[in-house]
Amino acid sequence: PDGDPKALLGTVVRNALTAGQPVTRGSLVGPKDRGFLAAALGPGMRAVTVPVNATAGVAGFVFPGDHVDVVLTSSVEGGGDGPALKVSETIVRNVRVLAADQRTTSVDDEGKPKVQTASNVTIEVTPRIAEKISVAQTLGSLSLSLRSIADSTADLERAVASGDVKVPAGANPAEEKQ
Length: 178
Hints:
Layout: E1 12-13, E2 28-29, H1 36-40, E3 46-51, E4 67-76, E5 85-100, E6 120-125, H2 127-139, E7 141-146, H3 149-162, H4 173-177
Antiparallel strand pairs: 1-2, 3-6, 4-5, 4-7, 5-6
């Protein structure tokens, strides 16, 4: 498309391509195009939007591509005459941020980092987790907890070491990654 490879940065393919199939402009979708978010989702995944404020959204430092935990804070009535207790619980761990407000990139038009407090953050989750978040929004307020880049690798290595994630014997690197 247009002969300039830099024009393809940030684009994704609309549908799967087979080897040798030409890539046309119609088969690509960019971050500002309609349908980008659906094309950027992993197979079987859903996009869910969580309302946040400056505090709940890590003061604008949650960017597309980051991984976050979702924390539910709610009130629990006690058995006595005292006030309700406030409790927090991490309900979802290590989900990918797809967009902050309607931004799918963390840089402005000039390529400079863009820090801006979002009022909504869209995350990628499974259908079951989407249902869990929908219910959680009725129970209390949701906030995000930003994860370190190193956490994703460390969590996976810990899960493999503990046996929670099984790696098939004799698997090639692509199979191990899956």
